[in-house]
């Protein structure tokens, strides 16, 4: 019985040594690949030249670090505005902070309403950017807003520096944003 145990122990040792050898070979291969990648990364010849000329999309203006199309002529409901932005390769504006909002506002008509990307259509009271599905962290609400009047207001617009929730079928001007959304 002891001889059988000793024989099995010897078999296990051979098996473990074989597995260890396979692991060491794999590790050596990975280390070699890592060195090759590090060498490629450290040489500048593989990196493209930095892009210095940024093309502004047609009908868009660079404001801050983003490009915007501010529609000051044609009014659309929220869905139509979102569709018009998509047709331009953009989305309704997803404003992230006061500085961004302030830069945009300097291009807006006074006392006009502009649709934004923010909505709580999916879940009442949980405002998200429709372009990304991410929660809207910057919401500069007007007094008493959001009020979801008659349980029908789920789309947000910007008016004189503040956000208001409104019925999505209201026709308003809108702001499209090309590039990163949230």
UniProtKB/TrEMBL annotation:
Residues 63-177 form the C-type lectin domain. PROSITE patterns: C_TYPE_LECTIN_2. It holds the Pfam family Lectin_C. CDD domains: CLECT (cd00037). This is Perlucin-like. The lineage of its organism: Eukaryota, Metazoa, Ecdysozoa, Arthropoda, Hexapoda.
